[in-house]
């Protein structure tokens, strides 16, 4: 018995297994993240969702030629049973040790266990490496994403919305001031790093006072930044920058406050060239993928769990504090309107969780400066 909400994954798994066979891969790990370790991901990056039919936000899949297993936490067990078919074995845990033990059982010694290094954080890569250490199984990074190959032209298109500048009245600091502050931290650090690499999408958006709509519930855009003592490289789809955003970034060209624009896909090649010289790259391990990290020799690395930009972003200036308070007041007005509406409608039997969510979203949208909710509204219970 399968509920009508379950997705038939037979053809999808067959296509992935064909791709695995072509690459000589015995097991393939599919995470629920994107290349920037984002909390929310776009439909285009929802590889695990496409492969399994599961629409929750956290999970890991592993596929071999004859088995497929899925790991997720207790929030999602009921959802998995409604959305996934019998091709998948549900593992009611999230520990990498548990995934490792399953793979040791499913993959014979000498077998390759593969993954896309641009979808795994440094820590996660190390955990898998440790789980398989000394087992005779090889952890093999493959830069071609095999799920993307199987997905083919059914995969959603790349983001195309405009990337725009945040008005000065919301920021309290120009991007030039922010860059100067980070460069000052680089000079004052005992190891004098020559560059900071930014992979987290919020880091680049905050640094340049830019916003986009590439990911639901988060006003960011796909990008990387390499900020050195004398240059600024932004890896982004240049066509999508609004004229005012482009003008803002390039008003002071040439010079140390000129932002050089490069294609998003050139990040790794550019970084490989940069590290040929006598340099030190400062990065935050939490948001950097193993694919980029692996390019930089250990002696040229300065690692912290978060980059200096992420830490600077966390400390709000007076203008940002004022804006946060004002946003909370506007939101409180919408919530009070919603509670009054509920008091009137619930006794009439006129409202359920879904119509409640729609109503509170509409009330918030009516407030000034609203750009949509920060996550899907959880409007009610029962």
From TrEMBL:
Pfam families, per database record: Creatinase_N, Creatinase_N_2
Keywords recorded for this protein, A-Z: Aminopeptidase, Hydrolase, Metal-binding, Protease
Creatinase N-terminal domain location: 12-134
SUPFAM superfamilies in UniProt: Creatinase/prolidase N-terminal domain
Gene Ontology terms, MF aspect: aminopeptidase activity; metal ion binding
Keyword Hydrolase part of the UniProt annotation: yes
Extent of the signal sequence: none
InterPro entries: Creatin/AminoP/Spt16_N (IPR029149), Creatinase/aminopeptidase-like (IPR036005), Creatinase_N (IPR000587), X-Pro_aminopeptidase_P (IPR050422)
Cross-referenced PANTHER family: XAA-PRO AMINOPEPTIDASE 1, XAA-PRO AMINOPEPTIDASE 2
Family: Belongs to the peptidase M24B family.
Protein name from the UniProt record: XPP2 aminopeptidase
Taxon lineage: Eukaryota, Metazoa, Chordata, Craniata, Vertebrata
């Amino acid at each position: 018995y399968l509920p009508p909400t379950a997705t038939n994954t037979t053809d999808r798994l067959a296509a992935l297994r064909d791709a695995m066979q072509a690459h000589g891969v015995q097991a393939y790990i599919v995470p629920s993240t994107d290349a920037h370790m984002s909390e929310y991901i776009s439909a285009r990056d929802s590889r695990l969702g496409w492969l399994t039919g599961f629409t929750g936000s956290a999970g890991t899949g592993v596929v071999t030629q004859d088995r497929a297993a899925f790991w997720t936490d207790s929030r999602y067990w009921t959802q998995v049973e409604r959305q996934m078919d019998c091709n998948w074995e549900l593992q009611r845990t999230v520990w990498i040790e548990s995934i490792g033990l399953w793979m040791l059982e499913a993959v014979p010694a000498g077998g390759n266990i593969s993954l896309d290094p641009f979808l795994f954080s440094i820590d996660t890569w190390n955990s898998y490496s440790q789980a398989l250490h000394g087992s005779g199984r090889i952890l093999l990074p493959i830069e071609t994403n095999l799920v993307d190959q199987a997905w083919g032209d059914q995969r959603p298109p790349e983001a195309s919305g405009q990337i725009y500048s945040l008005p000065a009245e919301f920021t309290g600091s120009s991007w030039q001031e922010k860059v100067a502050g980070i460069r000052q931290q680089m000079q004052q650090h005992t190891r004098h790093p020559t560059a900071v690499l930014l992979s987290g999408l919020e880091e680049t958006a905050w640094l340049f006072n830019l916003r986009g709509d590439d990911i639901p519930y988060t006003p960011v855009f796909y990008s990387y930044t390499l900020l050195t003592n004398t240059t600024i490289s932004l890896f982004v789809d240049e066509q999508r920058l609004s004229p005012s955003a482009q003008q803002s970034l390039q008003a002071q060209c040439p010079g140390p406050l000129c932002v050089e624009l490069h294609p998003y896909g050139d990040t790794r090649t550019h970084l490989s060239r940069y590290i040929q010289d006598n340099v030190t790259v400062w990065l935050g391990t939490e948001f950097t993928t193993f694919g980029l990290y692996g390019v930089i020799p250990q002696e040229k690395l300065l690692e912290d769990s978060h980059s200096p930009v992420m830490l600077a972003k966390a400390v709000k200036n007076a203008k940002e504090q004022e804006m946060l308070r004002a946003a909370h007041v506007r939101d409180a007005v919408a919530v009070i309107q919603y509670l009054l509406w509920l008091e009137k409608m619930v006794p009439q039997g006129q409202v359920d969780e879904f119509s409640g969510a729609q109503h509170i979203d509409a009330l918030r949208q009516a407030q000034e400066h609203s750009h949509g909710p920060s996550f899907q509204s959880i409007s009610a219970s029962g």
